[in-house]
Amino acid sequence: MNKITNHMPTAELQALDAAHHMHPFTANTALGKKGARIMTQGKGVWLTDSEGHRIIDGMAGLWCVNIGYGRPELGDAAKAQMDQLSYYNTFFQTSHVPAIALAAKLAELAPEGMDHTFFAGSGSEANDSNIRLVRRYWDVKGQPEKRVIIARTNGYHGSTIGGGSLGGMAGIHAHGGKLAGIVHIGEPNWWEQGGDMTPEAFGLMRAQELEAMILNLGVENVAAFIGEPIQGAGGVIIPPSTYWPEIQRIVDKYGILLIADEVITGFGRTGNWFGSQTFGIKPHIMTIAKGLSSGYQPIGGSIVCDEVAEVIGSDEFNHGYTYSGHPVAAAVALENLRIMQEEKIVEHVRDVAHPHLKAKWEALTDHPMVGEAKLVGLMGSIALTPNKATRAKFAADAGTVGYKTRERCFANDLIMRHVGDRMIIAPPLVITPDEIDVLITRARKSLDEAYKIVKDEGLFVAR
Ligand SMILES: *Cc1c(COP(=O)(O)O)cnc(C)c1O
Q: In what order do the strands lie in the sheet with 414-415?
């Protein structure tokens, strides 16, 4: 076979991709016929594809490239660590500097009293660890029957069998099943489900489903509640202001553990280091991944509060991954966090990028197809609708209009994803005001084109 490089014609790369590469979350036969778009380079917020298009990445890869693409310092850190100590495990009474330094750095950045990290290779793995951590915690405390974990419909916690079970996505449960001992309550999605209630009343009602579920199961059977401060893959569902305070009240009242899945909201995405700080949540465990290394290396973990770490640490914990705390991934994550701190990237999100984007993002509601437009930090969504006043859904299958809009974005060299008929963005945190203007210009153009297509095809009709 010829050497496969960026210089091969796109069609040849696509054919090889179709022949041999099984893509995640993809209908592979259909993609094979169409051909995948082949990315060849990244710098800052910009991607280049094999046809030479310059694409603005409104999704930071998959919500992870927080410091932007192509920072040579991270490659240098990887090389130096590979040369020094390419791998060693942390299972058998050994440790190494990158894992030590990263765990110490995370203790410094995390909220007060969260001083311990259990490393994994990804967010899904970390949530699998969390299932075992919280059940083991109650075992050690002499309450082994406390095993049920309460999660939320349309939450996303990864795609291993454990992560997928914690997540509340029926499409994922349908492919391979779901673990026992995990139950779901409703999501705080006012736009779709709030009916005539105010967002505040609806947020309270959804949070109180947690209390009802705890009482229904019996608190003696409940180990923990898990939620993303803002649901990401579920469509950037920003909860009403009443939601998290009420969840916190209930968790405190019944003494169950609270897991904040910060895989997206961690590391500056919401304008603080962690989404828990933005929403005033006090978790016992935070799941981390994605922005931890800005996606330069696969690494995740669970930041654990002192009390849980003490209980777990009182005996052997029969769990771990070959790559827990992998020295190269940890060294790259540390370098990423050094850049985040020294270049004040969290402050940039809070003081510069968020205010600039917020005004322009929210102004998209003047578009005839945009019902609401919301943004926290650099994480935003818009709801597409044929009738803003009634928050109507389209008559066509959910996602039909969203997909058409996404296709226009893709054609206009903007990566903006759709979840059903919501459009979502989470650009690299280093995005500048000028780049935000480009993003908005392309988003408006794409919305205009999609609106015309939707009307021409007779789809601008309420259900
Ligand atoms: C992406 C994501 C995960 C899963 O992380 P992977 O690294 O893909 O396994 C878990 N939780 C949330 C909130 C995520 O967005």
A: 39-43, 46-49, 54-57, 414-415
Q: Which two tokens stand for residue 159?
A: 């795609």
Residue 158 beta carbon below 6 angstroms from any ligand 1 atom: yes
Q: Give tens-digit pLDDT for 114-160.
A: 999 999 999 999 999 999 999 999 999 999 999 999 999 999 999 99
Give the three-class secondary structure for 69: strand
Nearest CA to ligand 1 atom 2: 158
Question: Which of 288, 297, 300 is closest to 74 using CA atoms?
Answer: 297
CB-based contact 415:47 (threshold 8 Å): yes
Which residues make beta-bridge pairs with 308? none
Q: Which residues contact 1 (CB under 8 A, 6 or more apart)?
A: none
> Considering only CA atoms, which residue is closest to atom 6 of ligand 1?
123
Structure tokens at 131: 């299932």
pLDDT in tens, 66-76: 999 999 999 99
| Three-state secondary structure call for residue 415 | strand
Could you tell me if the CB of 300 is within 6 A of ligand 1?
A: yes
| C-beta of 230 in contact with ligand 1 (< 6 A) | no
Residue 266 beta carbon below 6 angstroms from any ligand 1 atom? no
What is the Cα–Cα distance from 441 to 449, expressed in whole angstroms? 12
Residue 63 dihedral angles phi and psi, to the nearest 5°? 65, 25
- Residue among 59, 125, 131, 157 to mutate when testing ligand 1 (max atoms within 8 A of CB): 157
* % of the chain residues with pLDDT over 70: 100
Contact 189, 112 (CB under 8 A): no
Please tell me the residue having the least CA distance from ligand 1 atom 5: 123
Indicate the pLDDT class of residue 65, thresholds 50, 70 and 90.
very high
* Ligand 1 within 6 A of CB of 264: yes
Domains along the chain with CATH numbers: 37-67+344-456 (3.90.1150.10), 73-342 (3.40.640.10)
Q: What is the pLDDT of residue 4?
A: 87
pLDDT at 57 over 70: yes
